[in-house]
Here is the input.
Amino acid sequence: MKLIKGSRSLRRYQVEGEFSGDLISRATECLQENAFRQPLSHRQSEEKIGWTTTESLLDTDFNAVYKWYTQPYIYAMMRIDKKTLPSNLFRARYDAQVKDWLAANGKEKIPKRDRDDIKDVLTAEMMAQTLPKVKTVEFCWNVDQRYLILLNTSDSVNEKFTTLFYKTFGLSLRPFSPLMFLPEDDPRIQKLVNCGISNFRFLPVGEEQ
Here is the structure.
């Protein structure tokens, strides 16, 4: 578990909005509903995203609360699966099948409809034989203090995470900045605003997060 051992590269967010209802039962329902699901077909190429526990990327059962909650923290992993075909191998096999078609039909040019048919069949065949690339990203959410740590700094991964988090809990994530703890009249604030840095909000001086 990277949250408690090993090197860490992370982003921190403020969690905005109210998570109403009983915390445990509501969070269990939300996580279970958005847990990672295997695609119905091995031929699908769409990206699949969902939650797993930190115990294993195969564990999607959130009914055992001890796996994902230690007061006041909720912790889990976002799993991303994506199938991609090796473009050079696909092209070589496609060209070979086109040549076979031309030889079998005694023609010099293959109609577009037949080219598309070959491409579709070959894509489905290779997708069924291809394993997805799997990525997991851990997060830890302090429910009481309303902040969240994500162990990843990639913009694309963070965008996927914030989208899934909102879909799951109905809560928005705002990137954390130390500037949030400065008073509004601090001269450093205006200097940064003049430079175009304004993606933060102010908190009352002395408020703990």
Observations:
- The chain has two domains: 11-83+131-194, 87-129.
- The first helix runs from residue 23 to 33.
- Residues 11-83+131-194 form one domain.
